[in-house]
C-alpha cells in the first residue's frame, strides 16, 4: 500500500466506525466496554490516527453487530466489479 493511500484508508475506516457507533447511539465509553478496547484507542481509530489490527476491527464489528466488511468497504463502491484491478498486470521486476 502506498504512503498516499494509507492515511485515506485509515480515515475512511474511522468515519465508517464513527457513523455505525452513532447510528446505534453508543458513546466511545460504551463501545469500549463492549469491546474491551479503551475509549482513547477507539478515538484514535475513529480519527484515522491509529492503524487497527484485523482482530481489533473484528471485536468492534462484533460489538456493533455488523460484518467486518461494514468497517472496511464503502457500500457506495461495488468491490465485485474488479475496477481496481490493474489493466496490464503487475511489474514485479523490482522485487525479484
Automatic annotation (TrEMBL):
Residues 77-96 are annotated as: Disordered. Keywords: DNA-binding. SUPFAM superfamilies: lambda repressor-like DNA-binding domains. InterPro entries: Cro/C1-type_HTH, Lambda_DNA-bd_dom_sf, TransReg_Diox_bact_type. It comes from the Bacteria. Pfam families: HTH_3 (PF01381). GO terms for molecular function: DNA binding; DNA-binding transcription factor activity. One of its GO terms (cellular component) is cytosol. Residues 17-71 form the HTH cro/C1-type domain. This is DNA-binding XRE family transcriptional regulator. It comes from Rhodovulum bhavnagarense.
Amino acid at each position: 500500500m502506498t504512503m498516499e493511500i494509507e492515511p485515506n484508508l485509515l480515515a475512511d475506516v474511522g468515519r465508517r466506525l464513527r457513523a455505525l457507533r452513532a447510528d446505534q447511539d453508543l458513546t466511545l465509553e460504551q463501545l469500549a466496554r463492549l469491546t474491551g478496547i479503551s475509549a482513547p484507542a477507539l478515538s484514535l481509530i475513529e480519527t484515522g490516527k491509529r492503524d487497527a489490527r484485523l482482530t481489533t476491527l473484528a471485536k468492534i464489528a462484533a460489538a456493533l453487530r455488523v460484518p467486518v466488511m461494514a468497517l472496511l468497504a464503502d457500500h457506495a463502491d461495488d468491490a465485485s466489479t474488479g475496477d481496481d484491478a490493474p489493466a496490464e498486470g503487475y511489474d514485479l521486476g523490482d522485487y525479484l
